[in-house]
C-alpha cells in the first residue's frame, strides 16, 4: 500500500449510477481500504466536504466527510462511514447546498436540524453519533447519495424550474448513461473558474 492515492473520476448529473440504491459493504479488506483512501484523496482534491462512493462509480454504501476542513486551514480529519444508517431526525434546517456531481448549481434544501446516526469504520467497528446544523446537512446530503437521491431531487417545483436549463445541459453530456466529470472539464467547469 505504498503507492500514491488515485484521483478518481467523478460522475455527474445524468449518470445512471447516481440514481441507483447502493449495496451494503460486506467485505472489509485491503481493497476496501485502498478505495476509501482514493475517495478521501479525491474529496480533498475536488474541494468537497463529503464524497459518496456512487459519485466515483462504485454503487456501495460508503461515504467520507470532513466538515471542518478548509483549503486555508488545511488540516484534514476525514470520517469514513460504511453502511451508515440515519437513526433519527428532528427540526428543520436549510442552507444552500452544492454537489461535485452537479457542478455549478446551488440551492437551498430542507433537512433535519438534528440527527443521530450509526456507521461502521474500516475495522468493521460500529459507531453511533449525533450531529446538528451544517454537519447534519452534510451527513444527510451524502446519505442521500447512497439511496440514489441528489439534492436537486429534493427541490420543489419553482426552484427546480430555475435550474432546469443548467441540469439539462449537464445531462446532455452523458453517453449511454455514463457522465464523467473529467470529460467535461474543458467544456463547462473550468470556464467558470
Ligand atoms: Ni453530493
Explain how this protein is built:
The chain has 193 residues and is of the alpha+beta class. It has a single domain, classed as Peptide Deformylase (Alpha-Beta Complex). It contains four helices and five strands. A five-stranded antiparallel sheet has the order 1-2-3-4-5, with helices on both faces. The chain is globular, with a radius of gyration of 16 Å. Bound molecules: nickel (II) ion.
Spatial shape: globular
Main structural class? alpha+beta
The SSE string, one letter per element, is: HEEEEEHHH
CATH topology: Peptide Deformylase
How many individual domains?
Answer: 1
The proportion of strand residues reads: 15-25%
Question: Could you give the distance between the termini?
Answer: 35 Å
Largest sheet: 5 strands, antiparallel
| Number of separate strands | 5
Query: Could you give me the name of the CATH homologous superfamily?
Result: Peptide deformylase
Q: What fraction, in percent, of the residue positions are helical?
A: 25-40%
The number of distinct helices, counting runs of at least 4 residues, comes to 4
CATH architecture: Alpha-Beta Complex
Strand order of the largest sheet: 1-2-3-4-5
- List the uncertain runs: 183-193
List all distinct small molecules, including ions and cofactors, that are bound in this structure. nickel (II) ion
- CATH class bucket: Alpha Beta
Radius of gyration: 16 Å
Tags for this model:
193 residues; alpha+beta; Peptide Deformylase; five-stranded antiparallel sheet; 4 helices; 5 strands; 27% helix; disordered C terminus; binds nickel (II) ion
Amino acid at each position: 500500500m505504498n503507492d500514491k492515492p488515485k484521483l478518481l473520476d467523478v460522475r455527474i448529473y445524468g449518470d445512471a449510477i447516481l440514481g441507483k440504491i447502493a449495496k451494503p459493504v460486506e467485505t472489509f479488506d485491503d481493497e476496501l481500504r485502498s478505495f476509501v483512501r482514493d475517495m478521501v484523496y479525491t474529496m480533498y482534491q475536488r474541494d468537497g466536504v463529503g464524497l459518496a462512493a456512487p459519485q466515483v462509480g462504485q454503487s456501495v454504501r460508503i461515504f467520507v466527510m470532513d466538515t471542518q476542513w478548509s483549503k486555508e486551514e488545511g488540516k484534514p480529519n476525514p470520517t469514513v462511514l460504511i453502511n451508515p444508517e440515519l437513526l433519527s431526525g428532528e427540526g428543520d434546517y436549510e442552507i444552500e447546498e452544492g454537489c461535485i456531481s452537479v457542478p455549478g448549481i446551488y440551492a437551498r434544501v430542507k433537512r433535519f436540524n438534528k440527527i443521530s446516526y450509526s456507521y461502521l469504520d474500516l475495522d468493521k467497528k460500529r459507531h453511533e453519533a449525533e450531529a446538528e446544523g451544517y454537519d447534519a446537512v452534510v451527513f444527510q446530503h451524502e446519505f442521500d447519495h447512497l439511496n440514489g437521491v441528489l439534492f436537486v431531487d429534493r427541490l420543489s417545483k419553482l426552484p427546480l424550474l430555475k435550474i432546469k436549463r443548467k441540469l439539462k445541459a449537464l445531462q446532455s453530456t452523458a453517453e449511454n448513461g455514463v457522465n464523467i466529470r473529467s470529460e467535461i472539464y474543458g467544456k463547462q467547469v473550468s470556464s467558470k473558474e
